[in-house]
Amino acid sequence: MKLAQSHSYYIKSVIEIESERERESNLMATSHVDVPGEPTETGTALLETATGTIQGFQPINNIHQHLCAFHFYAHDMTRQVEAHHFCGHLNEDVRQCLIYDSPNKDARLIGIEYIVVESLFLTLPDDEKPLWHSHEFEVKGGYLFMPGVPGMVERQDLKQVCKTYGKVIHFWQVDRGDPLPLGIPQIMMALTRPGQLDENIAKDVEKRFGVSFEEQREQRKDLTGPDHGIHPLANAAGRGLKTELREVDIPPATSMPRVFV
Amino acid sequence: MHGIAHVSESTDYERTPPLTVWNTGKDDISLISIQKSFKEAPRYSCYHKKGQKKGYKGIHSVLYLNRSMASSDKKPSPTPAIGLGSTLPGKPTTLGSKLIESGAMMLQSMAPVRQMNLHACTFALYGHDLSRQIETHHFIQRINQDFLQCAVFDSDKPSARLIGVEYIVSDNIFETLPSEEQKLWHSHAYEIKTGLWTLPGMPELLQDPEHKSLTKTYGKFWCTWQVDRGDRLPLGAPSLMMSAQAVDIARVNPELVKRRDRKYGVSRGDAKESRVEMAEPEWINPNADYWKQHGKGFAIDVVPVEMKSSGALI
Lengths: 261, 314
Description:
Helix content of chain A: 25-40%
Radius of gyration of chain B: 24 Å
Family (chain B): Belongs to the OBAP family.
Distance between the termini of chain A: 89 Å
Structural class of chain A: alpha+beta
InterPro entries (chain B): OBAP-like (IPR010686)
Protein name (chain B): Oil body-associated protein 2B
Number of strands of chain B: 13
Family (chain A): Belongs to the OBAP family.
Number of domains of chain B: 2
Organism (chain B): Rhynchospora pubera
Shape of chain B: globular
Largest interface: A-B, 126 and 144 residues
Oligomer: heterodimer
Shape of chain A: globular
């Protein structure tokens, strides 16, 4: 009798745990609103499968790394976004990344990041430097990580990333529930000191990816930031940054449209 | 790249002519950056002479920022980050980095980027200056029948630079957008019908079905790296791009097109013939291609503001 009871109790717990896990895996850090539109038609899908096999995708094939980090809007630190970077090296000193809102197949392309080493950052004009942010804090703090990669391997690369500067631009404000990429591009910033990252977002990411920022912090104690220290103009020079749209005059279109030859 | 050096210790910056010196790559060089003096100018200098301690000196918290720091339509101040045929600065990728990348590739899923299965080559015009035109390579992922997202590069080689992102929506979706939003979008009918837009590597006949559905779409393209201006690194605010139209100022330079067509063995004659039968959209929303009706393009400015939250970033 007792055995049967404990057996059924065990089964019940397993079922509960499984459904809990399912619920959790459906959790997105940002509210997932479906992109409006009709499902892809078969003909279109078939054609695109064909193009996918026939055409060349070298620039995309150059993307070899997935990094997860957090960005906030350069004018509003309270709006924070989980950012999945898919990065490739242009050379040892310059990387370029596509930023998605999740690591899944249905992820939305929300932005771009460029990463450069310190020596190249210093060559930027002084009015450009504020648009870039330092990576030291988020790397040393454990907040920037490579999902799926063991710590030892991860740290080899993070050793370099810790000394770099990045420029992030987002085009799709998924955190406010936009179903489409509306509005103008947003300059984003990265974590630069404790207390900035929202607790709930942090815990959610830690749970979904099975990482612990605190543990990472311990293991990354020996990493160092930029050799010259963090440049005073980086990270928006301590202020906020906002983008604005401006109309400019362009020559009027001629009244006689010419057929393009 | 060397320049004249003049080191100034914080207080007498106003008497010092604004100079900036860079000398990248070595440890024993002087590296100095002095901001131009304004009324409340930043008083900082950063220097590192041989044997001296590295670091930044000066008053970090007193920072004056210009009204608009970066604008998509203004040329950036001269620095080594510009010019020299826009060659990419920096060292070649090391073996170490390549090994890390291969390791990562084996362990990580890369699912989002694997979804891109369409490569299109076309031309784009800068929204604030239609005479500046670039060949673009779109790597496209279809989300559903009405929406596509594209990573845009300046070539289709492994060395291609990521220069922006374009989103494409069907006319159905476009009509649901507020008019303020529609102004930022451009129509695709003209560039597709005239064969400016092509799918490299695909026979023209196979391209047809895709083009039929794309003719009626609208795109929103932000360019983050103005490589045609000679920027060796991505500088400035993102720029809104426009599409070619059947109007004088929005013609794509025939030389650019000829060069592209030669590269991919595209015959414009064939392309135009097979597409001439394609149904034109009955109506293109006049809010799109805003410059056509209004003679106004758009630029983006980045301006300093008070950060919403507690405390400063540094």
